[in-house]
Design goal:
Layout: H1 2-11, E1 13-19, H2 24-29, E2 38-41, H3 46-50, H4 55-68, E3 87-96, E4 101-115, E5 123-138, H5 145-163
Parallel strand pairs: 2-3
Antiparallel strand pairs: 1-5, 3-4, 4-5
Helix pairs in contact: 4-5
């Protein structure tokens, strides 16, 4: 059985996708009235970078996808003092096996400043909307992860448009 799974992993792709269980109304409502988002892509594992999947590439893919959907890219949150900008945060964890395949988790989160209800002096920068996927993929197909990241960004774009009364959503592959 493991030989069959190993072969599938080396030559194919296994992907599981979903949205974290959160209070749906609150999660989706957090996207209302956004004028745009900053984009942060977490640094990639050095081995995955050597195998051709770079955080710079993912940053470009995500920003292009958002721009093509008409969503404004705001300046990087790290470059602003006490920024109010919401941040679309992308993280890909890639762990390479001895067989050359990768186990991956892909998460896309909208992070925003929030004020605690019981203590308005306390502000935290935290995820208000999140989606994720898991995949196992052969090293030769690591480039396909770019499409999986864009699939998760597309989920954000759909909800963004629902909450901001926009009808024209462009979801072509990069």
């Amino acid at each position: 059985m493991w030989v069959g799974i190993s072969t599938l992993v080396l030559w194919g792709v296994i992907i599981i996708s979903g949205t974290f269980a959160q209070a749906e109304e609150q999660r989706v409502a957090s996207l209302r009235s956004l004028t745009g988002v900053a984009v942060t892509v977490e640094a990639m594992d050095p081995e995955a970078e050597r195998d051709g999947l770079t955080s710079t590439q993912l940053q470009t893919d995500v920003e292009l996808r958002l721009r093509n959907a008409g969503i404004q890219i705001l300046p990087d949150v790290k470059n602003q003092d006490a920024s109010e900008a919401p941040d679309l945060y992308v993280k890909v964890n890639a762990i390479k096996s001895e067989l050359g395949s990768y186990a991956l988790t892909i998460s896309v989160s909208l992070r925003q400043w929030m004020v605690l209800k019981d203590n308005p002096d306390v502000r935290i920068f935290a995820p208000t909307w999140t989606t994720s996927a898991m995949a196992i993929i052969g090293e030769q197909r690591l480039w396909k992860v770019r499409g999986y990241v864009v699939d998760q960004v597309d989920k954000f774009i759909r909800v963004y448009y629902v909450m901001n009364s926009q009808d024209d959503v462009k979801l072509a592959k990069p």
